[in-house]
Amino acid sequence: MIQYVEGSRVSGNVWRSAQPKRLLEWLHFRDTLKVKRVVKLNFESESSSDDLAKSLGLEVHPVYIEIGTKVSLDSIERAVDIMSLGDTLVHCTHGQDRTGIVVAFYRVRHDAWTVRDAWVEAKENGMNEDLLDIDFHWFSENAAGRAP
Hints:
By secondary structure, this protein is α/β, with parallel strands linked by helices. It has a single domain (8-139), classed as Protein-Tyrosine Phosphatase, Chain A (Alpha-Beta Complex). It contains seven helices and five strands, in the order E-E-H-E-H-E-H-E-H-H-H-H. The protein has a five-stranded mixed sheet.
């Protein structure tokens, strides 16, 4: 059975999901959810289906985050800045680890969530901090480091 990637709302018109792979999924994001831009956190070698998004007129912003290495704060900030424009889908391969940490930063900086609540949500959505080489202390120091 092929699983359909629907996406879940972060806030406003910002969405998160695993990597959309089929044209039907991209059409759902563009036409139903009114997404105009995509923050791609996974590498081209992991999936090139973002070419479908580009062919539909969506802006694709690659902000690559590598699993197994210390997460770049600059990359996270760039992703959050793009998400703050609204009408945005943020995704990685599974929509859990890289997407989880970026959405957690977005929650703190844009939605004024507490650091703990954002961390808990990321963990509940499957984020594995070991894969990102981060911990709660690193997150709490960096997530609240810039005003929303």
